[in-house]
Protein 1
Amino acid sequence: MRKLIGPGKIKTAIFISGKGTNLKSLHKLSTKKNSPIKIEIVISNNSLAKGLDYATKHKIKQKIFDFKDKNKSEKEILKCLKKNQIFLICLAGFMKILSKSFIKKFKGKILNIHPSLLPKYKGLNTHQRAIENKDKYSGCTVHFVNSKLDSGKIIIQKKVRIFKNDDYKTLKKRILKQEHILYSKAIKKIFSNL
Ligand code: GRF
């Protein structure tokens, strides 16, 4: 693996669409001395994503690709990743589905965080669905991205209890807190023993 990556920290791109709280937690990891990753760039499909303000504040390079023409945007992103010598992509609340051909080009090098205990509740509205099904637990999962939505190999999961009085907002808040811990743990798990 080390041979593949080269010396130094793993050059990483974070893809976001919204608030970017997972970006923040990954950035915190990346600023630690023993972090395996270094965030080189933040990529967003949404120019209004709050996470971009975080990137600006912390002087992280950022680029927006609007995905109006998905094929075109993906081609431009690939060029940008190449230019920045990116080895790893972390999807962090990125709300666009990447094409099979894009994923193939970064095979085994794209991670995602998903707010459920996969394989349960792929896709959207995970918290609402877990509550409606009267599940006792939900949680979050970090997994490799393959060509099927939320179906790649699971790296790590964290269970979170669902309480009787939870609504999707309270559950989402509790799970998001765990996501912030879990994403860094997953990265350390994959890359710390190179
Ligand atoms: C997180 O719950 C993530 O699991 C989901 O979208 C949310 C993004 O949150 N895919 P943030 O933008 O990182 O705050």
Protein 2
Amino acid sequence: MSEQPTGPTGDDASRVRVFDTTLRDGEQSPGISLNKQEKVEIASQLARLGVDVIEAGFPITSPGDFEAVQAIAREVEGPVICGLARANAKDIEAAWNAVKDSERPRIHTFIATSDIHIERKLQTTREDVKGQVRAAVAHARRYTDDVEFSPEDGSRSNVEFMGEVIQIALDEGATTINVPDTVGYTMPDEYAAMFEQLYRLVPGLRDVVLSVHCHDDLGLAVANSFAGLVAGCRQVECAINGIGERAGNASLEEIVMLLRTRESSHGLWTGVETTEIARSSRLVSRLTGYQVQHNKAIVGRNAFAHEAGIHQDGVLKERTTYEIMDATTIGLEANTLVLGKHSGRHALKNALEELGFEVDGAALNTAFLRFKEIADKKKKVTALDLEAIVSDEMRQSASAFSLESFDVEASSVRAPLARVTIGLPDGRLVDGSFTGDGPVDAFFSAINAATGHEARLKEYHVSAVTGGRDALGETTVMLELDGVLASGQGVSTDILEASGRAYLRALANALALSSGARQQAEEAPRAAAAMTQTS
Ligand code: MN
């Protein structure tokens, strides 16, 4: 049928390297506030997914980003670990110091080559840009022989000039050249023609890896990426769930499944373990607070659902009448594991290991207590539940506040009243109460009163981890505090408890983000001002 076995079936020349930028370009999305531990967890999952390169962050931008990239470089094995750097010495040193402990470190340096970016943003000249590229790539090569260079806004650059810049990067030893469609403006035929012209202008490009990096402003990120691959590129930069600046990046799951499903037509393949796709998508959605749209290709909840009677009838008779992919291929039905209330510590440990979580000692005790609590209320605890609990616990240890107790009174005859007791980072307990418009509003306002922060709720989502009346509830809160957007998630069989946890985590994240921004502004006001949108 239309499905093909996954690689390595093709020859090496047809292998497409998957460069994941969920933790760099994706993490630049508003309201995403991943801490170090969460970034390491995502990077570990990306390693299980089998991506070739993890762009772990932009180390110069903040001490927190530096530490996260360093932790990933030290702990995550398999993929190349890459740090982003503008084309200057300080950025490149920071990127190198962050990634150098990886077995396979890469420095990715970039500078804009379009006239609009050179004249308006950088306020310099084409000649100066050439000099910066020469110095930056040479500097990076002194540290490592794996250096990627990107001419930012490449798709809107004069191609002859960009060819000259790329030639300089190659002369100085760059091993991957990535030509981004930074603003999501190009079209497939145009992007492919640009690469064909670059191959003519810079014959040396045939000896290195050429790469695509596309944004989805016109909904063409995956189509443009694919056009670039057909034109000869062998690295695709992409992000889980398509997160990234503005409308996002090409989504990893879409480009990977396009390559796999239609391999017999184009011959291209990747080393991605596709059965890890569904889980990667859930993890990134959960930790970033960015929900996946229901009709999203590959990972949307309806991507494999059939509604129309004619379709259902067809699929029942023969799946391939209406399905071009099998849900098991992306790992949607892989986790059939179930635990009950009598399952012991050992069974839990095994189950967690099967899910890829190494839990020992105190962490196992905490996970076990939490599991018992849930198993008492819920007949069956599934793999999806365990995944949610572990993510929730991970965020708990990272949170600066704890929800000690709450009492919410709601009825149709008087305004809801909420009382809370919150544990502060220094161990003190504080109380707050509030009469609000609704029970959730009263609850969140009582938390504000107790902690003394005037956070404003921007978004609030509730969903169920699995089906059934006893399902675990999962909430996502996005709030704003002094102009900073931050999100948090919570999981519990009690939806109010899940909401309170989510709100407290979002609050802690907002405080961490604003103190990070203050620190950065004090340390390097000019560097902070120069931080603009990147490729
Ligand atoms: Mn980008």
Protein 3
Amino acid sequence: MIEVLSVASEAYPLIKTGGLADVAGALPGALAAHAVSMRTLIPGYRAVMKEATGGRVVAEFSDLFDGPARLIAGRFGGLDLIVIDAPHLYDRPGGPYSGPDGRDWPDNWKRFAALSWVAGQLGLGLVAGYQPQILHAHDWQAGLVPAYVKYGPSDQVKTVLTVHNLVFQGHFGSDIFGRLDLPPHAYYEGVEYYGGVGYLKAGLQAADAITTVSPTYAREIRTPAFGAALDGLLNSRASILHGITNGIDVGAWDPMLDPALVQNFTSSTIHKRRVNKLALTERFGIEESDGPLFSVVSRLTGQKGIDLVANNVDLLVSLGGRLVVLGSGDAGLEGALQAAAARHPGKVGMVVGYDENLSHLIQGGADAILIPSRFEPCGLTQLYGLRYGCVPVVSRVGGLADTVIDANEAALEAGVATGLQFSPVSSDAFGDAIHRAVTLYGHEEVWKKMQRRGMKSNVSWDLSAQRYADVYAALLGQERDDHLTD
Ligand code: ADP
């Protein structure tokens, strides 16, 4: 059994703002089948503390970055957690990174240095009877974990850093360095980043292994176009960089059992999706039509190419399509989509906000999901789409390129297509893809086969969990029977 401590700033079902939470929440369960025991270290935000009742206090600090703190261990939300109960850092309204006004907390440097520092202490054997062999850090919020190990008193515990999105880097002023409890030489050897302190950069420089969430993204981030100024460093660390595609929680996302659906279905009863489609059109005030019902479930940001959706709404409607949008984010993009809905009453509907249940109903009722991302480390909504027979229409980048098989003629002929891809990421190319989707939808049998194939494609965590287990085992110098290579 390999003992791993996952260090994450969010984990489903306790606290979630995006895909990182899904991954952090699903990995421990998936790894159990591969002889890996994974605990998760997480900040004690209000939402987490509400769940963390009845746990065991396993450590106390009189001063954890300017206030007292305790570590509480227990099984909460189905996860084996160690929660950092530090009210001065985490007991606040709002989200994990920002206040109710949407602004980042000014002391985020401290809040997430604390997360990483505590992980480093656990790696040093802080808690009697618990010695992780690997610290697996996620994103910039845990980026200092490898640095605390590398520049700390012992680097015996190995470190893995997973990049879920290279754009979020945790870049702070150099003035905080003296507060981080790192030796002075760590600054120039690894933590310094463009004259300040870079949490993600520090992690990339110090980790024993780096992973990111798809093979294509692993290649893309080594280029200036996708490297967010870290491509040089990533190239220098290419030999320890692995692309491992995310899976999804096929228990929480199971069209046969999903309680959020009005009607459950399987790949052989795909016609039952109609009931969900009807519920969806009612909810969004969409009129009946013979055309496809397209959908968007997304953060509304430039990364997600939401401007391309707004640009193509008129085309989509003119081709007989309908559109439902669930999302929130950039005010300009939100406004553009709301204007489109106002322009096309009964044909385009929008719900602004975050609604987990509605996102399930959309995947189980819409005909296609639009994901025109400019970059996409892995992406989860196309995987949910595949599993729910909601055909993904995606840009050919990152994990979208790795998980959807484009319905080109050869793929249709060979009977392997599962969705539509387009490239380059431009409004015109996306418009062409929408056109193609409408045409394919008109060929009912072809469309149904594509839906069924998607539903049968393997989007579970199983293969990915095996790859992570391989990375851990290699770091520990262990051989594994079911070893896979990159
Ligand atoms: P990212 O993490 O970059 O936002 P992913 O596709 O990896 O993108 O993950 C997004 C996750 O958040 C998915 O689980 C998706 O269903 C969910 N999601 C995004 N927006 C919403 C929303 N408005 N309501 C419900 N779920 C949403």
